[in-house]
């Protein structure tokens, strides 16, 4: 309350935590439209995550500088697949939360999940896995809109690492906030939710490449190829179909005549 002078002094927060950390603390606790009560309990989670992300970049730099002394893991193919899946899964959720729902607390939650996933891999994976580099760089780029200063520091560390393998995907001479927004891999499997009269009847697996080329007509044809959907459409004529595509969601909605 302004009249009671019991609010939090922003200047004091900036001195203690810095501008980016204060912003993350504000965004990470509740959704933008929710009522906010300042709570110190949110501090440890956000600050610990920032520390882990900073450590991950430093460990990556060290591993790449010592790559010749680190053996290529026997299970590197499985590790690459796991890291690739994590990158796509979290990128899908981060992009959806930024662009569609505007739930920045979900953005931070997804980023915390990605940091936890990639930190499971040791130095030999950091040194030799292309997908580790892709996932870490993607996270730093995605962090730039809400923590530009922290992201810039992380990016400076990444960009000067030895043996970078993603020069065709990232322009390492440009800062993080000027990078092209990361894209889902074209062969990443997405879920196409098929609904009849607003009730989900089936979920089909399609690639991101298929999704990008999909039209309402082709989506309807695919949905009607499902035996679960046809249980309802064979009994009632289809009146209308709609295709909804968002970064984190794709669905075809079928409306039939209700008897």
TrEMBL record:
Q: Which organism is it from?
A: Homalodisca liturata
The protein's name is leucine--tRNA ligase
Its GO biological process terms? Answer: leucyl-tRNA aminoacylation; mitochondrial translation
The segment(s) forming the Methionyl/Valyl/Leucyl/Isoleucyl-tRNA synthetase anticodon-binding domain are 94-212
MF terms from GO for this chain are: ATP binding; leucine-tRNA ligase activity
Q: Would you say which domain of life the source belongs to?
A: Eukaryota
Question: Which UniProt keyword terms apply here?
Answer: Aminoacyl-tRNA synthetase, ATP-binding, Ligase, Nucleotide-binding, Protein biosynthesis
According to its UniProt record, the EC number is: 6.1.1.4
GO cellular-component term (any) = mitochondrion
Q: Name one Pfam family in it.
A: Anticodon_1
PANTHER family per the record?
LEUCINE--TRNA LIGASE, MITOCHONDRIAL (PTHR43740:SF2), LEUCYL-TRNA SYNTHETASE (PTHR43740)
Catalytic activity entry: tRNA(Leu) + L-leucine + ATP = L-leucyl-tRNA(Leu) + AMP + diphosphate
The family note in this entry says: Belongs to the class-I aminoacyl-tRNA synthetase family.
